[in-house]
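Budget justification aside, the reviewers requested a transparent look at the raw inputs and outputs of the sequence design task funded under Objective 1. We therefore reproduce one unedited record. The lines immediately below are the structure tokens for a 245-residue chain.
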């Protein structure tokens, strides 16, 4: 099983430690993982802004870069979801699309494909779990509250493998944090208020950290916390999973 590690541009630029943690964890699990050089953006920002044609060359480049791998794994829910859901349509009639069906968020990959049952090390902290919208409703990482289905949470399943951790969830646990990519730029005041409301619920759990599988949501809430002096720390779920390696 050959795995291509995709590190989205904002993770590379702002949270490189998340990329390193992902690589270390996959290697620790004995997986054949490669980080292809000269990666670029997946095209999500352009497409979300209404410029889908600008995303097509990036999708074609991504396809060429990762087509040889059995799985493409990324520590970013929104980017993985964008590739999986939108690439077949963007590339239709232009070039073959093989990567969409094999692109997965790292949590999804570890839970569903690798089926991790134990992890080394410990993380003796109380963490409040943030369920990102893309993860809940596009990748199926946890059960959406609006659907009458049995409750599940793949992120929590993995986090609870770490010794010493206490995982809690806020009230209205799958409500949006307000980031939404372009939404946070076009509707700044609404986005900031949603972030404040969401963060307040995380803090009310008494947790030391907010964690989740998408740096974008964590980045948004961290910005709100800094501006409004709300005291809580942020850490990507894969950093917890890789703690102690």
């Amino acid at each position: 099983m050959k795995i291509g590690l995709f590190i989205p541009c904002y993770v590379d630029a702002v949270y490189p430690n998340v990329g390193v943690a992902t690589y270390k964890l996959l290697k620790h699990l004995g997986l054949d993982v490669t980080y292809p050089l000269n990666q670029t953006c997946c095209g999500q920002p352009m497409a979300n802004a209404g410029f889908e044609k600008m995303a097509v060359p990036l999708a074609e480049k991504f396809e060429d870069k990762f087509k040889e791998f059995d799985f493409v794994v990324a520590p970013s829910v929104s980017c993985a979801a964008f590739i999986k859901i939108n690439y077949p349509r963007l590339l239709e009639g232009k070039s073959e699309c093989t990567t969409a069906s094999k692109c997965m968020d790292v949590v999804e990959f570890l839970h569903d494909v690798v089926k991790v049952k134990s992890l080394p090390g410990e993380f003796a902290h109380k963490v409040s779990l943030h369920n990102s919208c893309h993860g809940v409703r596009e990748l199926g990482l946890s059960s959406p509250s609006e659907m009458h289905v049995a409750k599940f949470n793949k992120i929590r399943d993995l986090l609870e493998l770490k010794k010493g951790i206490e995982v809690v969830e806020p009230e209205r646990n799958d409500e949006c944090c307000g980031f939404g990519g372009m939404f946070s730029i076009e509707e700044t005041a609404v986005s900031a208020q949603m972030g404040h409301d969401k963060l307040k619920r995380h803090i009310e759990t008494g947790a030391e950290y907010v964690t989740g599988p998408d740096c974008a949501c964590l980045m948004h809430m961290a910005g709100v916390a800094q501006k409004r002096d709300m005291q809580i720390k942020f850490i990507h779920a894969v950093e917890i999973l890789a703690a102690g390696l």
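The first helix runs from residue 9 to 14. The chain is about 45% helix and 10% strand. Computational costs for records of this kind are itemized in the attached budget.
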